[in-house]
Structures are given as structure tokens and as C-alpha cells.
Amino acid sequence: MILILLLLFLAAPFFVSPEKAVGGETPLQVEVLPRSVKQGEVCLLKAWGPGSLKSVHGEFQGRRYPLGSEDQYQTFEGLLGVDLQAKPEKYSIRFMTTDANGQVDSKTFSIKVEKADFGVQKLTLPRSMVDLDPQTLERVNRESKRLKELFQKFWNERTWKGAFIRPVEGELSGAFGTRRIINGQPKSSHTGVDLRAEEGTPVWASNSGRVALVDELFFTGKSVILDHGWGLYSMYFHLSEARVREGDRIPKGAQLGRVGSTGRSTGPHLHWGIILNGARVDPLSLLRSTASLQ
Ligand SMILES: [Zn+2]
Description:
Radius of gyration: 21 Å
Order of helices and strands: HEEEEEEEEEHEEEEEEEEEEEEH
Number of strands: 21
Distance between the termini: 39 Å
Shape: globular
Bound molecules: zinc ion
């Protein structure tokens, strides 16, 4: 009985509307899925209101998350990412709407971010890949600065559409978020997933977008990064070959290159990473949260 009550409690909608919309006929309805979110997960934001809504966006931790509408019923959808190191506590999402007359309205919701249990992974790698000489260290710092600057760019056009797809068929060989101990030293967390695949296996674009980077980097080897718009980037690392060029516009499922083991890698696999508005999130969570989208 207690279990049933607990299940009913957990199944209850995660959000209640704590505020009535100001100045309107309480038009704005909002849903956030999943209803409970952990560090490193992606949420699908949905909003619908009167037929006159023109634009909707969410504000979360000082960042802007646009929602878009594709149907005549004016259901607005967007994605929100919780960084893997976000503090597990209560946060607010503020939904802002503008109607056809330019009237602005807002509604605030609170979400609770739960702590994720990411676990630890121990790896042994050649010393030259871990204890870096000054020249290599300088290269690594330069490359990490370049990536950081890239992910700060916000392309205000959404090119992704519908469900994201796995870039290779291959079992998970490295989970998201694990704290890594390399040659006995604690290192940074694993900010993507590793998918095991044979050398040469084609790698597909997980959604449509624009090629933001193609280069050979020290840690990530031959790398392709796609910008899907609205702050969403996908990364494909350790490739043996890249088949696209920076600036190319590509559709979902286009071949980006082939699986390899370039950079700091222990064998052929694809490292697949996702950055959403600066948050490092689990690609498998992105698959789950967009699975129902057309
Ligand atoms: Zn990896």
C-alpha cells in the first residue's frame, strides 16, 4: 500500500503552477519532461496558450532557452540542459511569452535537480598522454580555449528537428559523467558517452545542423562538432576520417566520418558529447527527451 502511494506521488505532475499569469486570461500552460531531473540530464519544455502567442522562451540560470512552434495549435517546444556539475537543489525556470499584440507575460516554475550517481572509472594510459610536456600543455590549453569560445556562441536559428539519433550502432563502453582516475590521478569527468564500434564504421549526424569544427586535437583526435542552433552542439571524437568541412549545412543522418582511435584513446570507439546552452549533458538523455518529437 505504501509503495502504491509512493508511486502515485512520484507519478504526480512535477510542476504545479505557482503563479497566475499576470494581465491575461491565465493562458499559459507548461509541461516539463521528465518530471524529475538529475544532474547531466535534458528536459523537454512544452508550452501552449491562446492562439495569439507569438513567442515563448524559458530563462534558467541566467540563460535563454527559446521554444519553437511547428503546428497550428501553437504548441511551443524547446530543450533545457542541466550541467553534470549543477548543484543538486531547487531552481526556477521563468517562462516568458509575447502575444500577437506584443504583450509580455511570464510564469515561474521551480524544479528540483537530483544528484546523479556517476561512478568512477579507472584507466591506464601511456605516460606521454597524461603527464604532458610544456609544449603539449600549451597546445591543450589553446585547444580547450578554442572549444570554450565555440560553445559560447549562440546561433539564434534552430536547425535540429524531431528526435535525435545515435551516431553509430554500438554498445556503451563508457558512461556519461564518470569521474576518471587516469594512471592513479583523479582527472576531469567524462562529459560524453563512448560507443564501441569497429574502426571505419560510419558516423552519422545525430540531427541536422552546421559543421562548426573539423580538426585534429590532442585529446579528442580527429574531431567534428556540429552546431544545431539555439546553443545545442554535438561532438564526434577520435575519428579515423572526417568527411565534412567547416561551414557545411548537413541533414540528420548525413555521414560525418568514420570511427577511429585518434587522440587520447584506448581503442576504436566514438566519443559522442552534447553541450546545451553551455551545459554538459548526457547524449542518451537527449535521445530520451526528444524521442517523442516529430
Ligand atoms: Zn569518451
